[in-house]
Amino acid sequence: MSEPDAAYAFGDSAPASERLALVARIFAPSTRSLLARLPARSGRRVLDVGCGPGHTTRLLAEVCGDAHVIGLDRSEVFLAEARRDAGPGGPSFVHADVTTPPLPHAPADVVYARYVLSHLGERAAVLRGWFETLVPEGVLVMEEPEWIEAVEDVLRRYLQITSGLMAARGGELYVGRELGAMARALGGRVLHDDIALVSPTTGDVATMFGLNLRAYRDDPWVLAHYDAATLDRIAAGLAAWRTLTDRGRIRWGVRQMIVERSSGLP
Ligand SMILES: C[S@@+](CC[C@H](N)C(=O)[O-])C[C@H]1O[C@@H](n2cnc3c(N)ncnc32)[C@H](O)[C@@H]1O
After folding, report:
1. Strand pairing partners for 143?
2. Does residue 50 have its Cβ closer than 6 Å to ligand 1?
3. What does the pLDDT profile of the chain (266 residues) look like in tens digits?
4. With contact defined as beta carbons under 8 Å apart, do 249 and 148 qualify?
5. Ligand 1 center to residue 233 CA distance, Å?
6. Contacts of residue 87, Cβ cutoff 8 Å, sequence gap at least 6
7. CATH topology of domain 14-146+172-198+249-260
8. What sign has the CA pseudo-torsion 154, 159, 160, 165?
9. Which of 71, 82, 81, 74 is nearest to 113 (CA)?
């Protein structure tokens, strides 16, 4: 583990990294569709805030062609993985607390954030800091959960624990619901605002949730609110579903927004 993080509940252990690889695979198609909407400009500087092990950063580098793409994160463990996987000539990675402006390498043409704001407190101020990192006509691109619908009790129980833990750290799992109002308050031009529907296989979701439960089950808040038998029951239920290939037991609504910082705005 790297330095203790006051806010990020899921850590940077091996299961946390494995989970993010699965997150990357599950959500790559909806992220690609969003990135295809970016206004085409060359020579751009792109910041991936809260980049983790660099899955989103590499996707941005692929989509943005000749742009200089830089991933920012607080976890040295994830940054080391990201640098290893980027290879020569790939994106670069810098240690930073993305809640504290100015961000390294500012100003940027694109600031991108996926599943990061949901882990942070003081979200309106953080969002403003990111927005003010942009050059005129630069764009802030965000993806966050609006809702997650699960029909099975074991999945719903996992989501209850996860959202409770995130809230205890000042975050909000379903931060997509706040995003529209916060983004509009920035005063930029909303170029895109929609909800992407994602319906992964039961096996992928069970594996992803099981890894996260392993990553956070010794957290003091979790231990204070859930007994070991309950956590074991959920872990066993998820483990039993790891090979299922059906879809429809769980669906994500991911709020996706692109907001442009208009020229002439402060
Ligand atoms: C759920 S992961 C998302 C990673 C990546 N955006 C993706 O979609 O694969 C959240 C990331 O935000 C990072 N993070 C949380 N709080 C942060 C902060 N204050 N400054 C920088 N990074 C932070 C964590 O270390 C973690 O890598």
Report:
1. 114, 256
2. yes
3. 333 345 689 999 999 999 999 999 999 999 999 999 998 775 699 999 999 999 999 999 999 988 999 999 999 999 999 999 998 889 999 999 999 999 999 999 999 999 999 999 999 999 999 999 999 999 999 999 999 999 999 999 999 999 999 999 999 999 999 999 999 999 999 999 999 999 999 999 999 999 999 999 999 999 999 999 999 999 999 999 999 999 999 999 999 999 999 876 54
4. no
5. 29
6. none
7. Rossmann fold (3.40.50)
8. positive
9. 71
Instruction: Determine whether the shortest distance from the Cβ of 99 to ligand 1 is under 6 A.
Output: yes
115 lines ligand 1 (CB under 6 A): yes
59, 69 Cβ separation under 8 angstroms: no
* Total Cβ atoms within 10 A of residue 163: 17
- One-letter amino acid identity for 61? A
Domain ranges for the chain, please list them: 14-146+172-198+249-260
